[in-house]
């Protein structure tokens, strides 16, 4: 690229040298050689540039190359043609006019590819062309056409050459006005066509006096134009000419005014110079009228463009760019207008959130997610028309607002649910959407934001109760939100002030009642409210991201406590700790390093630790989760599935993931000895787990009857109140570890697959 760039400037330099030799008039031989080298060299260089760079948009440059050939043939044929009579005398003009036509076509192709014929640039170009055209017609074309001592066709051609230049001038100006970057190729091309224009003006001057040929110096501009044209094709920037960024509507800058103002002054110049020549009044009037019309059109166009820009800015500020629906701000304006109307039937809002939309983005990408949102917006638009207001206020959340009673809102919500459950066809995939919908009605004169908050609260309540629910707002939800905010603030303080602590529940051998492991459970005692259940604060921790800090605390504290028991001589050889792992932790690739560091610091083997996970995490089948789970098993840490049987229990996912233990949910254990169905489920889980070489733990054991049933089903590990509730570390050590000092009285627990004992933990 660097060589071609330098070569293009070298071509211009050589061309100027040859043009200088031609201008010195050293004789016909030198002039002929200089002219021939310039002509043939230009065509050769253009061919090389075209073949080397191979621009993506080739037609303009190919047409320009053909135009150069046509021009060159016209130059070579002119000496011969001037000596002929009849049609043969016009041979050179035919090729010259063909060259002009091809040059104009090439410029039009460039404009169409790069920026198009932009209205403002065309008008400015017309103003310049009208001014130049008026001069050309009045001083060159008409005088040449009036000459009566030569054939009319000769006079017509002599008058048309300046007009060809005016058209080229119009296109070059338009190209310059509509491109934001002045590339070297464009500059070379513009200079080349300007040189042609200057050369034609010279011939037009002698043509107005009836002469067809003159001094050899008249050909000098054409000799300069050819190497400039060759440089435009050879320079590497010719590739970028197809991708020039178009300019926005431009003000009349000093450079632009330098072209436009002289053009506007041409009628006055013509009047002064040719005053009294009435035969030119029609041309003068047409040109003046055209200039005035162009100016008026430019002014009106500028005003309209400004108005369009303003409308566009307002639209972008008040509408969602993806679905083109009103955004939150515009929705609030519409609702406030509804409030001001003071309708007696009140106002209702539907707050709609797509369930599982994040999974769509994660599995199929944001492009599919955007297509889904657009399709959902179309369906909602069809359902809610013509009177309701529909808005997209964020992500996958939509709001519908209208006048009417609450019953009407519930009917609309049911229609929306029914419509969204219909399959949505997207490229390469078919999806079915489900939405959680909250409804709020406003009959008093509050504001739009309060109504929107109420509908939002109702939607979150619907989502918390399951997928695809509809919930109507009630005042008690505000109290729930206040309590949640209070819990969040207090939980943040608890994390910062180390107010959280762990309790431990034994995991035992049901035959002996001896503890082979413990479940670490997070606990929080509020300084004013007292104990707060994990059922209340764990969801808050997950929503706010505090679960990361809490998870780190539970993991480190569990390992630290086992190390303390070991140092006190209380930790049996095969005793292990089961710790809950949150979904966020299992998507963090640093979890393995964190666990490995903890085990190393506290000098514990990986068989001492089991990470407990939920079924829903496995069903998501996230690549990140799979990678983290595999890395933990590679470390030697056990993996236990909590509450097995209540969710998406499946043999297929148990065989795909590196789990080592399943925990039978307490709901099935409670029915043992009472409900034959529960016993059959537990039996099936045990059989399935045995086939996969997985350990089984039954949780929630509270009676001896349940214990005996589990023993009969070959369940070798249990957990529940029958052997004790979760207690603090000192009480756990006293009740469950010290009794294990007599090794002869202790039966080791079931061995874990891959050599690591397993269990699970729940936050209850």
TrEMBL record:
<dbReference type="InterPro" id="IPR000160">
    <property type="entry name" value="GGDEF_dom"/>
</dbReference>
<feature type="transmembrane region" description="Helical">
    <location>
        <begin position="188"/>
        <end position="206"/>
    </location>
</feature>
<dbReference type="InterPro" id="IPR043128">
    <property type="entry name" value="Rev_trsase/Diguanyl_cyclase"/>
</dbReference>
<feature type="transmembrane region" description="Helical">
    <location>
        <begin position="255"/>
        <end position="276"/>
    </location>
</feature>
<keyword id="KW-0472">Membrane</keyword>
<feature type="transmembrane region" description="Helical">
    <location>
        <begin position="32"/>
        <end position="52"/>
    </location>
</feature>
<feature type="domain" description="EAL">
    <location>
        <begin position="484"/>
        <end position="740"/>
    </location>
</feature>
<feature type="transmembrane region" description="Helical">
    <location>
        <begin position="212"/>
        <end position="234"/>
    </location>
</feature>
<dbReference type="Pfam" id="PF00990">
    <property type="entry name" value="GGDEF"/>
</dbReference>
<dbReference type="InterPro" id="IPR052155">
    <property type="entry name" value="Biofilm_reg_signaling"/>
</dbReference>
<protein>
    <submittedName>
        <fullName>EAL domain-containing protein</fullName>
    </submittedName>
</protein>
<feature type="domain" description="GGDEF">
    <location>
        <begin position="345"/>
        <end position="475"/>
    </location>
</feature>
<feature type="transmembrane region" description="Helical">
    <location>
        <begin position="153"/>
        <end position="176"/>
    </location>
</feature>
<dbReference type="Pfam" id="PF00563">
    <property type="entry name" value="EAL"/>
</dbReference>
<keyword id="KW-0812">Transmembrane</keyword>
<keyword id="KW-1133">Transmembrane helix</keyword>
<feature type="transmembrane region" description="Helical">
    <location>
        <begin position="7"/>
        <end position="26"/>
    </location>
</feature>
<feature type="transmembrane region" description="Helical">
    <location>
        <begin position="121"/>
        <end position="141"/>
    </location>
</feature>
<dbReference type="InterPro" id="IPR001633">
    <property type="entry name" value="EAL_dom"/>
</dbReference>
<dbReference type="InterPro" id="IPR029787">
    <property type="entry name" value="Nucleotide_cyclase"/>
</dbReference>
<feature type="transmembrane region" description="Helical">
    <location>
        <begin position="87"/>
        <end position="109"/>
    </location>
</feature>
<feature type="transmembrane region" description="Helical">
    <location>
        <begin position="61"/>
        <end position="81"/>
    </location>
</feature>
<dbReference type="InterPro" id="IPR035919">
    <property type="entry name" value="EAL_sf"/>
</dbReference>
């Amino acid at each position: 690229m660097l060589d071609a760039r330098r070569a293009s400037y070298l071509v211009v330099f050589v061309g100027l040298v040859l043009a200088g030799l031609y201008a010195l008039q050293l004789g016909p031989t030198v002039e002929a050689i200089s002219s021939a080298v310039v002509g043939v060299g230009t065509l050769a260089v253009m061919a090389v540039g075209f073949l080397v760079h191979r621009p993506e948009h080739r037609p303009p440059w190919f047409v320009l190359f053909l135009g150069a050939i046509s021009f060159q043939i016209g130059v070579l044929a002119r000496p011969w043609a001037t000596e002929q009579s009849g049609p043969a005398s016009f041979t050179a003009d035919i090729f010259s006019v063909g060259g002009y036509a091809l040059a104009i076509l090439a410029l039009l192709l460039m404009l169409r590819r790069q920026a198009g014929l932009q209205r403002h640039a065309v008008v400015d170009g017309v103003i310049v062309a009208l001014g130049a055209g008026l001069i050309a017609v009045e001083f060159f074309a008409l005088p040449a056409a009036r000459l009566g001592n030569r054939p009319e066709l000769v006079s017509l051609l002599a008058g048309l050459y300046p007009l060809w230049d005016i058209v080229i001038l119009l296109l070059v100006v338009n190209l310059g006005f509509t491109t934001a970057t002045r590339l070297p190729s464009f500059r070379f091309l513009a200079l080349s066509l300007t040189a042609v224009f200057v050369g034609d003006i010279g011939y037009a001057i002698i043509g107005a006096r009836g002469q067809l040929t003159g001094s050899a110096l008249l050909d000098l501009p054409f000799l300069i134009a050819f190497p400039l044209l060759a440089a435009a094709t050879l320079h590497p920037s010719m590739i970028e000419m197809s991708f020039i960024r178009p300019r926005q509507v431009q003000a009349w800058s000093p450079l632009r005014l330098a072209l436009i103002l002289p053009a506007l002054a041409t009628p006055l110049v013509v009047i002064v110079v040719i005053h009294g020549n009435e035969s030119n009044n029609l041309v003068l009037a047409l040109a003046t009228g055209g200039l005035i019309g162009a100016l008026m059109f430019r002014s009106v166009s500028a005003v309209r463009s400004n108005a369009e820009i303003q409308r566009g800015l307002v639209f972008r500020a008040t509408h969602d760019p993806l679905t083109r629906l009103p955004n939150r701000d515009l929705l609030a304006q519409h609702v406030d207008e509804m409030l001001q109307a003071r309708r007696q039937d009140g106002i209702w809002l539907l707050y709609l959130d797509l369930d599982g939309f994040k999974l769509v983005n994660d599995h199929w990408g944001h492009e599919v997610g955007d297509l889904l949102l657009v399709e959902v917006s179309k369906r909602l638009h069809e359902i809610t028309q013509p009177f309701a207001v529909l808005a997209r206020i964020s992500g996958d959340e939509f709001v519908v607002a209208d006048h009417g009673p609450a019953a009407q809102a519930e009917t609309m919500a049911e229609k929306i649910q029914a419509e969204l459950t219909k399959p949505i066809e997207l490229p390469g995939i078919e999806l079915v959407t489900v939405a959680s919908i909250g409804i709020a009605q406003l009959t008093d004169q509050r504001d739009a934001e309060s109504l929107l908050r109420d509908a939002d609260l109702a939607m979150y309540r619907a989502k918390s109760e399951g997928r695809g629910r509809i919930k109507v707002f009630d005042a008690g939800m505000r109290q729930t939100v206040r309590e949640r905010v209070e819990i969040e603030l207090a939980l943040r303080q608890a994390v910062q002030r180390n107010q959280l602590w762990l309790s431990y529940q034994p995991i035992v051998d049901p035959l002996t009642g001896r503890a082979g492991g413990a479940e670490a459970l997070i606990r929080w005692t509020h300084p004013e409210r007292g104990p707060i259940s994990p059922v209340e604060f764990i969801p808050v921790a997950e929503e706010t991201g505090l679960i990361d800090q809490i998870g780190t605390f539970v993991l480190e504290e569990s390992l630290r406590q086992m190390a303390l028991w070991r140092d006190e001589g209380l930790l049996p050889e095969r005793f292990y700790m089961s710790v809950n792992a949150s979904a966020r932790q299992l998507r963090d690739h640093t979890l393995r390093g964190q666990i490995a560091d903890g085990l190393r610091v506290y000098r514990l083997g990986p068989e001492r630790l089991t990470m407990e996970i939920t079924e829903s995490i496995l069903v998501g089948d996230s690549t990140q989760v799979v990678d983290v789970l595999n890395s933990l098993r590679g470390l030697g840490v056990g993996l236990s599935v909590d509450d097995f049987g209540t969710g998406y229990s499946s043999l297929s996912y148990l065989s795909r993931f590196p789990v080592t233990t399943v925990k039978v949910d307490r709901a099935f254990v409670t029915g043992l000895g009472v409900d034959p169905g529960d016993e059959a489920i537990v039996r099936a889980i045990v059989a399935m787990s045995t086939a996969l070489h997985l350990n089984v733990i039954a949780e929630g054991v509270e009676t001896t009857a349940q214990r005996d049933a589990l023993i009969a089903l070959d369940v070798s590990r249990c957990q529940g109140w029958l052997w004790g509730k979760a207690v603090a570390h000192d009480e756990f050590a006293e009740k469950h570890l010290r009794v294990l000092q007599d090794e002869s009285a202790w039966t080791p627990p079931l061995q874990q697959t891959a050599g690591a004992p397993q269990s699970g933990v729940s936050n209850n």
